[in-house]
From TrEMBL:
InterPro entries: DUF6459. This is Uncharacterized protein. Pfam families: DUF6459. It comes from the Bacteria. Residues 158-167 have a biased composition (Basic residues). It comes from Streptomyces xiamenensis. The lineage of its organism: Bacteria, Bacillati, Actinomycetota, Actinomycetes, Kitasatosporales. Residues 1-42, 143-167 are annotated as: Disordered.
Amino acid sequence: MRASTSGFDRRPRPGAGPAPRTRRTDSRRPGVPLPRTSGGARTPQHWFAERLLLILSGRRPVHLLMGHTTAEAYEALIHAADRAPFAFSGTPVLRRVGATQPAPGAVEAFARVTVGERTRAIAFRLEQSPDGSWRCAALELDTMNPGHQDPPHPTAPPRHRPDGRRR
């Protein structure tokens, strides 16, 4: 700062202080937010659908949901993630999440996902534990039926040895 008749000159130096606000210059638009509950928090089915999409598209590892699933649902997730069904057909987009509550503490939900030109489906069941947290108890993809098999993802490492045993 420079000395002045009143003591010190209070003009900021170039580069000091907060950066000026600028307009966004790229043409991308933010995604449409998922509907929220009245309290501003996402519902459990939205939370799980988002994480399932991240895992099934190969963007996050399966263990992201460890502790948030039952053993059976975790095994189904490992099996589904081995094939990375949403990873190589374009960027997957979560289009809709819906749910029904067949009993108190249970939610049966679905997620509609667009991958390239194709619409895919994920179905899952959530069960509330005594501490109030939700766990995925069942998982099914539209391609998990025995008559249909997605090709393995080209960059996904195999999870099983040729003799069928797990690594």
